[in-house]
Design a protein that fits this description.
heterodimer; A: mainly beta; six-stranded mixed β-sheet; four-stranded antiparallel β-sheet; 0% helix; globular; B: 113 residues; seven-stranded mixed β-sheet
C-alpha cells in the first residue's frame, strides 16, 4: 500500500524568508500524481500545487515550487518570500494511476512570523 | 470558494445517536470523496463514489455508510455514535478519477457528547 510521510511536524520561518517542507512516499507504481494542500486556521483545504510523476519538470505556482525526485520518492515544497498568510498546516498527498482517493501525510504545521 | 457545499457546518449530538452529513459537489464533478480529520490524526479516507457508484473504500467503520444520489449529491450516515467519532468530516469532489485534484468543502464539525 502507498504511504506518505512528512517528517517535520512543525516548522517556523520569518517573513520574506524561504522554507522547504519535506515529503517522502512509498509506491511501486511508475505513474502517479502528487499534491500539496494547505489548511489554514479556518480549516479549509486549499490546493497549493500538483505534480505529475511522468513529467520531469518541477511544478511551480507563484511563490510555491516543488523539488520532485522520482528515484528518491521525494516531493518537497519550497515557499519563497514567506508571508504571514502562509501560516497553515501543509499536507502532502499521493494519488495512484487508477485515480483512487488521495492518500495524505500527517501534515507539517508552518508558522510564519514577522 | 471551492464550489463544494457541505451541510451542516456544525453538529452536536449524543453517543448512540445517528446523524447524516450532506455534500453537494462542484458543478460537473462526478467523483465524491469523504474524509475524516480527527485532532490527532491526519486526513483519513473513508469512501469514494463516482457517478453514483461506490469506487473505493478506506478506513470506514461498519457503523458508517454513504451513498451518492442521481443528482450527484452525497450523504454520509454515521450511526451508533461514539465519543471517538468526534471529528471534522470533509467532502471533496473532482472532475474525473485519474490525477484530478480534489476540491474540498468547508467540512462538518461533529461533536459527540
Amino acid at each position: 500500500a502507498q504511504t506518505v510521510t512528512q517528517s517535520q511536524p512543525e516548522m517556523s520561518v520569518q517573513e520574506a524568508e524561504t522554507v522547504t517542507l519535506s515529503c517522502t512516499y512509498d509506491t511501486s507504481e511508475n505513474n502517479y500524481y502528487l499534491f500539496w494542500y494547505k489548511q489554514p486556521p479556518s480549516r479549509q483545504m486549499i490546493l497549493v500545487i500538483r505534480q505529475e510523476a511522468y513529467k520531469q519538470q518541477n511544478a511551480t505556482e507563484n511563490r510555491f515550487s516543488v523539488n520532485f525526485q522520482k528515484a528518491a520518492k521525494s516531493f518537497s515544497l519550497k515557499i519563497s518570500d514567506s508571508q504571514l498568510g502562509d501560516t497553515a498546516m501543509y499536507f502532502c498527498a499521493y494519488s495512484n494511476q487508477a485515480g483512487t482517493a488521495l492518500i495524505f501525510g500527517k501534515g507539517t504545521t508552518l508558522s510564519v512570523s514577522s | 470558494d471551492s464550489g463544494v457545499t457541505q451541510t451542516p457546518k456544525h453538529l452536536i449530538t449524543a453517543t448512540g445517536q445517528r446523524v447524516t452529513l450532506r455534500c453537494s459537489p462542484r458543478s460537473g464533478d462526478l467523483s465524491v470523496y469523504w474524509y475524516q480529520q480527527s485532532l490527532d490524526q491526519g486526513l483519513q479516507f473513508l469512501i469514494q463514489y463516482y457517478n453514483g457508484e461506490e469506487r473505493a473504500k478506506g478506513n470506514i467503520l461498519e457503523r458508517f455508510s454513504a451513498q451518492q444520489f442521481p443528482d450527484l449529491h452525497s450523504e454520509l450516515n454515521l450511526s451508533s455514535l461514539e465519543l471517538g467519532d468526534s471529528a471534522l468530516y470533509f467532502c471533496a469532489s473532482s472532475v474525473s478519477q485519474v490525477g484530478s485534484p480534489l476540491h474540498f468543502g468547508n467540512g462538518t464539525r461533529l461533536t459527540v457528547t
